[in-house]
């Protein structure tokens, strides 16, 4: 007869390497399911924050026009090839940044990257890689519509945000446009944009190095002349004289 052994039963089953691998696999599967949703929520948050910025900019432009006898804020103001003020400078006091107003003409002023003019989905460190530049010593991820239906040589009937100089106001008037809710004034993109934008690859027809990717998945935020901002899917539309939608979008009227 075998002697009795004093054995203590195990307190519980221990984790094996296989168990650990199973747990890790489950966590990885759950993470793969949650991460797209979290990314989508983050993108939506950036889009909403950007839309709020552009709404504020649209309101600032309306306030500027009220103070400037109905004139739309110029894309640029000053003598060509000399220090200039961009629309970023001119709207500075209306977005809570009066310090931006005169830095465009101040040779000693440092360039600025204002939060009020920054799209969360297009951080400042990406500007140069997109071929963008500063205007009035201000860098931004938003642009203004400077479209005309002609040029200075041939003349034009329509001018949105023009290049003004100290010899006279060369920019449009708010009340000149009968359908302000259809005319884009600001949008995600380079500091100045117009009807020469090309649908693919969404660069300018005359400049293939300045890129305009969609910052919010497959679209961008746009502010219209009446001040409202909205999200639009797709690239900036290609202008076509036979297309009434693009006429309205860039020129604010039909031909």
Written description of the protein model:
By secondary structure, the chain is an alpha+beta fold. It has one domain (about 15-250). The protein is about 25% helix and about 15% strand. The chain has a five-stranded mixed beta sheet with strand order 6-3-5-9-10. A three-stranded mixed beta sheet has the order 2-1-4. The chain has a two-stranded antiparallel ribbon with strand order 7-8. The longest helix has about 50 residues, at about 15-65. It is elongated and about 85 Å long.
Q: Helices, strands, pairings?
A:
Blueprint (H helix, E strand, L loop, with lengths): L16 H51 L8 E2 L7 E2 H5 L50 E4 L17 E2 L19 E5 L3 E2 L9 E2 L2 E5 L7 E6 L4 E5 L10 H8 L4
Parallel strand pairs: 1-4, 3-6
Antiparallel strand pairs: 1-2, 3-5, 5-9, 7-8, 9-10
Task: Give the tally of β-strands.
Answer: 10
**Secondary-structure element sequence?**
HEEHEEEEEEEEH
Radius of gyration based on Cα positions? 27 Å
Residue share in helices?
A: 25-40%
**Order of strands in the sheet with most strands:** 6-3-5-9-10
Question: Helices and strands: which structural class?
Answer: alpha+beta
Q: How large is the count of helical segments?
A: 3
Strand fraction: 5-15%
Q: Provide the domain count.
A: 1
* Separation of the first and last Cα atoms: 112 Å
Averaged pLDDT:
84
- Categorize the overall geometry: elongated
Low-confidence stretches: none
Largest sheet: 5 strands, mixed
